[in-house]
Specification:
hydrolase, alpha/beta, binds zinc ion, seven-stranded parallel β-sheet, metal-binding, Arginase, Chain A, Histone deacetylase family protein, 9 strands
Length: 340
Amino acid sequence: MKAVYHPAQRAHDPKHFLSSGAPQPNPEQPARVDALLGALERRGIAPAAPADRGLGPIARVHTAEYLRFLQTIHARWRRIEGASEEVIPNIHPDRRSASYPLSAVGQAGYHQADTACPISAETWGSAYWSAQTALGAADLVLGGARAAYALCRPPGHHAFADLAGGFCFLNNTAIAADHCLRGGRRPAILDVDLHHGNGTQGIFYARGDVLTVSIHADPARYYPFFWGHAQERGEGPGLGANLNLPIPRGTADAGFLDALERGLERIAAFGPDVLVLALGLDAFEGDPFGGLAVTTPGFARIAEAIGRLGLPLVIVQEGGYLCAELGANLESFLSGLPAG
Ligand SMILES: [Zn+2]
């Protein structure tokens, strides 16, 4: 197993997070990286730094307007008298067909879905290298590796083409999948994070060339609320190329593995030649979000089931928050993959 990681991903250190209206410390902490690196080290895997593939592969997934916003907004925000240290929106257009504003406050509302994606001076650099890490893992697989792990942080699957949200800025999973497509492959995406991969779904919703499958806690009463329901099947050429498998809060290994089997059947029927796996570890029973109840050995069983597809794997780290078992859960997952 090869792995990719760039230390610049550690610099983004968000402070702000509102949970049911109450200010809390932001759970997407740089220390997550240490737990995940520790897991790789215990498995004898030394991650390599990715090459810099530039903005091109990122701009095929995200709008130019949004990329410029991410790169410039913090400096512009700090020129506003009395503004907060981090960029946090306080106004949103009621419909996104509304006009594009000139002001920093207006653009923050336009490009940030919620208060869980504060932007500091370090955010762009960390998000950029997180995306480059995903591209590096995709290139390893395009070059013939059976599997490659991208230690991406900040995560990406809640980011739409022009919208940050849920700790995510650049959609690393979507960028990796699109890169595989440009490399002549037929990619499918499987998202096993606790939360629905709404940004990934949004990016590919009207496209039939990339299958998107997500298993997650039922959004009827859980983030991201507005997306992730079973009836969302794609549109236009993408109709039928999006499968959501919401499962009840508190579902443990057996229920998760049942949903996974249904997802894997759909993936096999799509006939992909590479799988991009959005690997959230927050479905864990002891994760601070507490939404599902997958056990540490359960992650190995998830990996075994995915491995039976026999597809080359680009594994992109998504969620999974600080708890004593975070590293052990990654170790468990990696131990369940086929050797080699
Ligand atoms: Zn998550």
